[in-house]
Automatic annotation (TrEMBL):
GO terms for cellular component: cytoplasm; nucleus. It comes from Plasmodium gonderi. Gene3D superfamilies: Leucine-rich Repeat Variant. Pfam families: HEAT, Importin_rep_4, Importin_rep_6, TPR_IPO5. This is Karyopherin beta,importin-beta 3. Residues 120-280 form the IPO4/5-like TPR repeats domain. InterPro entries: ARM-like (IPR011989), ARM-type_fold (IPR016024), HEAT (IPR000357), Importin_beta (IPR040122), Importin_rep_4 (IPR041653), Importin_rep_6 (IPR041389), TPR_IPO4/5 (IPR057672). Its main location: cytoplasm.
Length: 1124
């Protein structure tokens, strides 16, 4: 035993040689005399007088059984052992399983008995942790049956130290024995009551932590048993807060309680439903003193934890948050008060320094800024929250204050939340915001100017391309001025704002300023010693090149040598980013000016990049990422001339991608971990995951560009990438792997078409990918995490669609095609069956508004997934139409008949969408199937459900293209008119508007394609025009509006009406959709050309008499642009 004491003392030595000697000795004893070693440690743990020795003994126990504890954590879903108290390295033996049964019982017994006798708090805490860690597996396997009754005994002790230990152990083990605890719920409830009524603050704190564990575990029976104690929890919190200023131990418990409350809100905010207002009042009072200042009576940690709990309420249950009087107003005001807590000295020091990152001391400011963002996101889809309106009122108040701090906070609040501005308010609100920001760019205080640059940059990202189209001259000229600000940090930030703004600028808007801006940026590169200014200047040059494209040629000879010089010379650690940006810049320039100009420089760049890549680089060296992205751009610039570099790049990528997740067997840090279908945990270094994601990005570009010229690497790439379709660790990697496979499939298809038409390799890759995806989709089980799993299913189904789309026609043999059809229909059946789950959730007795929001999101995701499955059916029909009619048609018709006759409207809509696919992709060949569905399709135009209406109308659009539909034309128009005439109210659901959109589109198509069937065609066309433009379905809108502009160009005899009476309406339609999602670039160009061909006096009269302000503004912009 003395030897063990020596080892323990040696392990704490400052001499590394002594520590290593003791570790080796300990390892020897564990391997050669395990039983006596454990007994000796247990004896010292029980009886040694020195509490530090006892503490080290408790840690040693944990260390000896570390391997067993780790497997327990993995098997029970606990956190991975972080090994912070580990003594020794290397792979550990599972010493627990090597102990004889009687010694295992001694260990358990001694740990329990020491709880009652141990006097040191730290030792006792470690004893509790040891019991919890060892028990995880033992309780599940019924190997520690007495632990629960012993723990409950501790929880009834009159000794506060034992009581605290009991609460801690019970909280740690309850997830392992939920059924046993539910049977003892009355006992659990009584011990919680005992703890909350204790006069000891630490007992109350640990009791509240136990309750938070119960809430987190979410056993309805146990949660219900402790819910009546919320008033005592809140009373205890209030008392602790009050006394926290004068007693450090109370402060520590108060922090623990706030963390526990935050955890309860995070996992089950509904727990607090009846007391949410009281809880919020307490949390707000911790943070605020009166209405306009933070409460500095309490420690900052309490304010931080309180605002975190407050933010989490709307994140988890926004409707519940709105039930608290003035919650939105208070949380916005509080967040901005936090932001006002700016440390003047450290902030000013940062503003005047050359450091890139902000000062770490701005803790409360950063919390407030993050809070605004999170609350804005939480309420972004809750219209009645009026988050933006309340925020902007508060911003106006702050802007009227005459201090730089208030102005700074107001502007940064806008920057932080501008993305949540509702779409229908963008035009009105942004005009005021932009005007204000351009004014404060001239403010006398440097910090305010800096904030204005930040806000302009953020708006440029969040509301592109609107701000680029509406305010190019005002914003560019203001930023040019600010780039020459006397303050270097403002110069840098103005340049960064320009980068954000210019990326989405129209070429013609930027060209007039290009000379001036390039001149400013080159001056900064040549003269500024401020690295951040130079970095932003390089990026700004790159953006200009990307926007003005071939017009950058005039700067090429000056800029490219400068970039090469930076790449060669900027090799120090602090210059990494600048070097990376120069690499980025030269690759963007090359892509902009074209291969003919760039070819020789591209070769030089590629050789340099490959040489840099071959040198050893730090894992966090940002240059690595810049190099990969630059290689991708150079590949796009060179096209097939990039081929010589494949041998240097592709093998490295494939080698990296071949490293797959592995079972957890070691103590590596920085691991991303997940549980796979067999219950085993696997992991991979997070940095390696990130490298794989970037490698896939580059690989996708290379295959996309090289296509059939990638032939030498297709099979090897498929071998490396196909296993990643089952990637468990990262959905992003799974998604990118599917994209890479789809590009491989296209390359293999083009190769077969251009050579011997042998589709063996194409078929092999396609079927391997399809089988993996279909197997994954069919085996997926939805658990409580519905949204996440549905997201993954959407990724997989969309990936399969891309693969089939790029494979082209007649790749799949009959048996495989039939198998795929059967599987897709089964997946559709499973998806519709899940409707029962959603209905059960909705009909739950205690379901509330927040839960209904979650169910709505889940149903929307389910609908997106079904849409992807329908897309897969469509592409299979499209590319295998003859095979489909011969081998799969019966399966499809059976599905249609079953679902068309369902009483559920969603089933009917699903059947109609399948009919739509038949009409769209079989076209004339679908006529033989019309007897099964055409009459029901037409009847469902006037179904009571909007989704059914929309599906039926879309089917008519597809059928109209087929000559045989002419006999249905009149009856179809009658049904469509009946639906269109229902469109009398401005406020209609989106689904109804989509149905009307498709009905209007179908009406126009029928009348224009089957004109001879109508005596009133001119009247019907007028009605069609009066219901345009398309308002909700942007894809259908682009088609219809493109058709309309083409009809105008052809001077279609039906279009303009008698005496050109329809002309004004046609112009209104075009001005409404111009440069929106309902028009494309070609349509915009034709609209501008049409407008400019019209008489200017006619347009002026139209603008003053018939157009809205928005339409008139667009008209003015089109006319002015043409004059330039």
């Amino acid at each position: 035993m003395e030897k063990i004491v020596e080892i323990i003392e040696g392990l704490s030595s400052s001499d590394s040689h002594v520590r290593n000697e003791c570790e080796n000795t300990l390892n020897y004893y564990k391997k050669n005399d395990l039983n006596n070693t454990v007994l000796s440690i247990l004896k010292l743990l029980k009886s040694h007088k020195d509490s530090q020795v006892r503490l080290q003994c408790a840690i040693l126990i944990r260390n000896i059984f570390r391997a067993y504890i780790k497997t327990s954590n993995v098997e029970t879903g606990g956190e991975k052992e972080n090994n912070e108290n580990s003594l020794g390295n290397g792979e550990e033996e599972n010493y627990w399983d090597l102990l004889p049964e009687n010694l295992k019982n001694i260990v358990k017994s001694e740990l329990i008995s020491n709880i009652s006798t141990e006097t040191d708090k730290m030792v006792r805490s470690n004893l509790c942790n040891n019991i919890i860690d060892l028990s995880s597996k033992l309780l599940i396997n019924k190997q520690w049956p007495e632990l629960l009754s012993v723990t409950l005994g501790f929880c009834n002790s009159n000794n506060n130290d034992v009581l605290i230990s009991g609460f801690k152990i019970l909280g740690g083990i309850l997830s392992c024995i939920p059924n046993e605890l539910e049977l003892k719920r009355e006992l659990v409830s009584s011990v919680c009551m005992k703890g909350l009524n204790s006069s000891d603050v630490q007992v109350r704190g640990e009791c509240i932590n136990l309750i938070s564990c119960i809430v987190e575990d979410n056993s309805p029976i146990l949660v219900k048993s402790v819910q009546p104690y919320i008033p005592q929890i809140l009373q205890s919190l209030s008392l602790m807060v009050k006394n926290s200023s004068s007693d450090i131990s109370v402060l520590e418990e108060c922090e623990k309680v706030l963390q526990a409350i935050g955890k309860m809100i995070d996992y089950n905010a509904k727990f607090f439903t009846k007391h949410i207002s009281t809880l919020c009042d307490i949390l707000f009072s911790i943070c605020m003193k009166g209405e306009n200042e933070l409460n500095y009576d309490f420690d900052s940690s309490l304010k931080s934890l309180s605002i975190e709990a407050l933010i989490t309420i709307p994140e988890r249950r926004p409707k519940m948050a709105l039930s608290v009087p003035h919650f939105v107003d208070k949380i916005i005001h509080l967040s901005m008060l936090f932001m006002l807590d700016i440390n003047n000295d450290s902030f000013n020091e940062w503003m005047n320094s050359i450091k890139e990152g902000k000062d770490d001391n701005q803790e409360l400011y950063d919390i407030g800024e993050e809070s605004l963002d999170r609350v804005g996101k939480a309420f972004s889809e809750i219209e009645e929250a009026e988050f933006i309106h309340i925020l902007y009122n508060k911003v106006s108040e702050f802007l009227m204050k005459n201090t730089w701090e208030h102005k700074y906070v107001a502007i940064m609040a806008i920057a932080q939340t501008i993305e949540y501005l509702p779409e229908d308010e963008i035009e009105d609100q942004l005009e005021h915001v932009i005007k204000m920001l351009l004014q404060v760019l001239l403010d006398q205080d440097v910090r305010v100017r800096y904030a204005a640059c930040q806000a302009i940059g953020q708006i440029s990202l969040d509301h592109q391309p609107y701000v680029q189209k509406e305010y190019p001259r005002q914003i560019i000229t203001a930023l040019i001025t600010t780039m020459n600000d006397v303050h270097l940090r403002v110069q840098s930030h103005a340049t960064a704002a320009f980068v954000n703004y210019a990326e989405e600028l129209d070429k013609m808007a930027l060209l007039p300023f290009a000379d001036m801006i390039i001149d400013i940026l080159l001056q900064k590169l040549n003269s500024s010693n401020y690295l951040l200014v130079r970095e932003q200047a390089v990026t700004a040059i790159a953006v200009i090149a990307g926007v003005i494209e071939e017009d950058f040629l005039k700067y090429y000879a000056t800029v490219v040598p400068m970039m090469k010089d930076i790449i060669q010379k900027a090799v120090s650690e602090e210059e990494r980013t600048c070097r990376g940006k120069a690499i980025e810049c030269i690759s963007i320039i090359g892509l902009s000016v074209g291969k003919e100009i760039f070819l020789e420089d591209a070769k030089e760049c590629m050789n340099a990049l490959l040489q840099i890549s071959s040198t050893k680089m730090d894992p966090d060296d940002t240059v690595k990422e810049y190099i990969q992205e630059a290689i991708g751009r150079i590949c796009r610039a060179l096209g097939n001339d990039f081929f010589p570099y494949l041998s240097s790049i592709v093998p490295t990528i494939l080698s990296l991608l071949s490293v797959l997740p592995k079972p957890l067997t070691d103590d590596e840090e920085d691991l991303t971990i997940t549980m796979v279908s067999n219950g085993q945990y696997v992991g991979l270094k997070t940095s390696l995951l990130e490298d794989q994601e970037k490698a896939l990005d580059l690989l996708i570009i290379i295959i996309e560009v090289l296509k059939e010229n990638y032939k030498d690497y297709i099979e090897a790439t498929a071998t490396a990438v196909l296993p990643m379709l089952n990637y468990e660790l990262s959905d992003e990697i799974k998604q990118k792997a599917l994209t890479a496979v789809s590009e491989l499939i296209e390359a293999a298809r083009i190769l077969s078409e251009k050579t011997d038409n042998n589709k063996t390799m194409l078929h092999a890759i396609l079927t391997a990918a399809a089988e993996k995806v279909l197997k994954s989709l069919s085996e997926t089980k939805l658990d409580d995490n519905y949204e996440y799993i549905l997201d993954v299913m959407i990724i997989e189904s969309n990936g399969l669609y891309m693969c089939l789309q790029k494979a082209g026609a007649n790749v799949l043999p009959d048996n495989t095609l039939k198998l795929f059809f059967n599987q897709i229909f089964k997946l559709l059946q499973c998806s519709t069956d899940r409707r029962l789950i959603y209905n059960q959730k909705k009909n739950n007795d205690d379901v509330d508004e927040d839960e209904l929001l979650i169910i709505d999101r889940e149903e929307e995701l389910e609908q997106n997934y079904r849409t992807n499955l329908l897309d897969i059916l469509g592409v299979l029909i499209k590319y295998h139409s003859t095979q489909f009619l011969n081998t799969c048609c019966d399966i499809c018709i059976t599905f249609i008949n079953t679902y068309l006759n369902s009483p559920n409207s969603e089933d009917v809509a699903l059947a109609l969408y399948v009919c739509d696919d038949l009409l769209e992709f079989l076209q004339e060949n679908s006529v033989c199937l019309w007897e099964y569905f055409m009459n029901p399709l037409l009847l469902n135009i006037n179904h009571t459900d909007d989704k059914v209406k929309q599906a039926a109308c879309y089917g008519v659009i597809q059928a109209t293209k087929i000559e045989a539909f002419s006999k249905y034309a009149n009856i179809a128009v009658d049904y469509l008119l009946k639906l269109i005439h229902q469109n009398t109210s401005n406020k209609k659901p989106k689904e109804f508007i989509s149905a009307i959109d498709n009905a209007v589109a179908a009406l126009g198509d029928i009348v224009l394609m089957h004109t001879s069937k109508f005596n009133n065609a001119e009247e019907l066309i007028k009605l069609w025009l009066n219901n345009l433009p398309i308002k909700e379905d942007d894809a259908e809108g682009r088609r219809v509006h493109k058709n309309l502009i083409d009809l105008v160009s052809q001077n279609h005899p039906l279009l303009f009406g008698k005496d050109n009476s329809n002309t004004a309406k046609i112009i209104e339609i075009f001005l409404t959709i111009y440069e929106t999602d309902f028009s494309d670039a070609d349509c915009n160009k034709k609209i501008a050309s049409l407008i400019n061909s019209l008489d200017q006096s006619y347009l002026s009269n139209l603008a003053s008499s018939a157009l809205t302000n928005k339409q008139a503004k667009k008209l003015n912009n089109i006319v002015n642009t043409s004059r330039k």
